[in-house]
Amino acid sequence: MTLQQLRYVVTVAKKGNITEAAKELFISQPSLTNAIKDLEKEMNVIIFDRTNKGVAVSKEGEIFLGYARQVLEQVNLLEDTYKQNSGRKLEFCVSTQHYSFAVNAFVDLIKEYGSSEYDFSLRETQTYEIIDDVARMKSEIGILYLNEFNRKVLKKIMKANGLIFTELFIAKPHVFISSEHPLAAKERLTLEDLEKYPYLSFEQGEHNSFYFSEEIFSPLERKKNIRVRDRATLFNLLIGLNGYTVCSGIIDRKLNGNDIIFVSTDIRENEKLLEPIKFMLAPEERVVVAYQGIRDMLIITNKKFMTVNKQGLTGKKVEYRVIPLNKISAFAVETAGTFDLDAELKIWASGIGYIEVQFAKLLVRDGALRNIAAILNANIL
Questions:
Q1: What is the 3-state composition of the chain as percent helix, strand, coil, each rounded to the nearest 5?
Q2: 271-380 domain in CATH 2.30.29.50?
Q3: Residue range 234-262: average pLDDT?
Q4: What is the largest distance, in Å, between two alpha-carbon atoms of the chain?
Q5: Burial level of 210, CB count in 10 A (0-12/13-18/19+)?
Q6: ∠ CA(276), CA(363), CA(365), 5° rounding?
Q7: For residue 53, with 0-12 CB atoms within 10 Å meaning exposed, 13-18 middle and 19 or more buried, which class applies?
Q8: Which CATH number fits domain 174-265: 3.40.190.10, 3.50.50.60, 3.20.20.10, 3.40.50.300?
Q9: Which residues pair with 119 in a beta bridge?
Q10: CB neighbour list of residue 64: distance below 8 Å, 6 or more residues apart
Q11: Strand, helix or coil at 210?
Q12: How far apart are CA 173 and CA 187, in angstroms?
């Protein structure tokens, strides 16, 4: 195995095409193909899957390429340290969620460190891809948002990939809206103020669980939802539809102009809904999700799973059933069939037994059962 072979496979993976990679590497296509085959044979690994349409990186190839990029990065560092006037372009890549402050920092970086030749990349992408990019050495750093809800899951993924999270700052929630929005003149906004307007967020592809969401208060249920892939589309819809999103409150006027503003918010997660059960919550306890049926409620906090069952004709008699999350050892989900009115969730807890919760089809359709299963799954693993 040679460094040249590693450069070959990394370039082919980057181009996604052997012909284009051969042009960039200034070698013939047959020579490049043979070099890759020799490397695969020597290392006993299939780096690329061959199809009629070209080549695609295999699953084991992704792992191999991660190591290859690390080796080449170390070689580049050695050359930069001990070779003067090597003439190599500076290379740097950042993967980030959709934040204007990241773009601003990227601009400052290029102004300070950009030489006469460089090859820098800024990837605004999905949360899971950010972690994967850094793990595979496609990017040197990744920028993403953690809160008390998603921290456990994302840090577990980071740890599995040998990554470390370093806090940049603590963001307070603000609402982003158009400067022409009917609510633009208000100093502070509540959940009730925003209820009739569409909520915009960034979709997360195959990993569209709200653990990977980059918006603050993402577990909240909203009547009108629009998901987009890029920041420009989100801003256009904020203006065109009087939509809103909840984010950090950091916006750059030079990059984004004056059409988008941020407003402080008094949003508390399902505050009105939770008023009757506040006495059941500890001082430091935070609600993750809450669902209201016709009479009953289901709440998951960062500490416990709780159901509220109103009994009798008047509903004045109420049963509060609580299971600590750290006691939950297993759960089962039974989805609603064609002629069933309800879906069911069964939860087993150590030393307690199990409880059964029924979900109306409306809640199943809105993703409540899926969201709850994702939360429980993260806590029992």
A1: 40, 25, 35
A2: yes
A3: 81
A4: 85
A5: buried
A6: 160
A7: exposed
A8: 3.40.190.10
A9: 91
A10: 9, 43, 45, 47
A11: helix
A12: 14
Task: For residues 309 and 27, give the distance between their C-alpha atoms in angstroms, rounded to a whole number.
Answer: 72
pLDDT at 141: 92
User: Is the separation of the CB atoms in 103 and 252 below 8 Å?
Assistant: yes
How far apart are alpha carbons 354 and 96 in whole angstroms?
Answer: 42
Please state whether the predicted TM-score (pTM) of the whole model is above 0.90: no
Helix, strand or coil for residue 172?
Answer: coil
CB 92 within 8 A of CB 114: no
Q: Does 271-380 match 174-265 at the fold level?
A: no
* pLDDT tens track for 9-64: 888 888 888 888 888 888 888 888 888 888 888 888 898 888 777 788 888 888 88
Query: Tell me, which fold does domain 1-84 have in CATH?
Result: Arc Repressor Mutant, subunit A (1.10.10)
Q: What does the alpha-carbon distance between residue 243 and residue 176 come to, in Å, rounded to a whole number?
A: 9
Output DSSP code: residue 183. T
**Domain map (residue ranges) of the chain:** 1-84, 174-265, 271-380
Based on its alpha-carbon atoms, the radius of gyration of the chain, rounded to whole angstroms, reads 26
Would you state the structure tokens that stand for residue 309, as one six-digit string?
């069952």
Q: Any idea what the Cα angle at residue 147 is, between residues 124 and 247, rounded to 5°?
A: 50
Token pair, residue 132, equals 């994967």
Residue range 346-364, pLDDT digits in tens: 888 888 777 777 665 445 4
- Residue in the block written with tokens 């988008």: 260
Q: Which two tokens stand for residue 320?
A: 């509060």
Determine whether 375 is exposed, middle or buried from the number of CB atoms within 10 Å of its CB (0-12, 13-18, 19+). Answer: buried
Residue 374 carries which side chain, given as an amino acid letter?
A: A
CA distance 11 to 217: 40
Q: Give the Cα separation of 275 and 278 in Å (integer).
A: 6
Q: What is the pLDDT of residues 67-99, one digit of tens each?
A: 888 888 888 777 776 766 555 677 789 999 988
CA proximity to 322, closest of 292, 295, 357, 294: 357
Burial (CB < 10 A; 0-12, 13-18, 19+), residue 171, is middle
Asked if 231 and 124 touch (Cβ cutoff 8 Å), the reply is yes
